Amino acid sequence: MSKISIAQYNEINKDWHDAKKELEEAEIEFHKADACQIVDNCPICKGTGEVEDGYGNLNHNPYGVLLYKECSKCNGKGYIE
Questions:
Q1: Which domain holds residue 56?
Q2: Contact criterion met (CB below 8 Å) for 79 and 39
C-alpha cells in the first residue's frame, strides 16, 4: 500500500470534486443542446451570429482589436429561419 500525506489527499479530493462538478454542468448543457432542433449555419457568419466590422476609429481602438457586429442575414442567431 502506498502512502500520501493528508495535504496530498485533500488536494486530490478537491480536484475530484471540482471535476465531478464540471462534468455535471457539462451534462446539463449537453441535454439542453440535445433537446434542440439542429439547423444549418448561416452562410454569411458560419453560425457565429457575428461578422467582422473592421477596426473602427483607431483613436478609440488604440490596440487595433477587430470589432464585430450582429450578422444582418440571420439577425445574430447563427441560422436562417
A1: 38-81
A2: yes
Are residue 29 and residue 48 in the same domain, yes or no? no
Q: Are residues 3 and 16 in the same domain?
A: yes
Q: Is the pLDDT of residue 57 over 90?
A: no
Find the helix or strand (DSSP H, E) in which 71 lies: none
Write out pLDDT tens, residues 23-38.
Answer: 999 999 999 999 999 9
Q: Are residues 19 and 48 in the same domain?
A: no
Q: How many separate domains does the chain show?
A: 2
Closest CA to 77 of 52, 53, 44, 28: 44
Cα 54 to Cα 72: distance, rounded to the nearest angstrom: 15
What span, in angstroms and rounded, lies between the C-alpha atoms of 33 and 30?
Answer: 5
Residues contacting 72, CB < 8 A, separation 6+: 44, 51
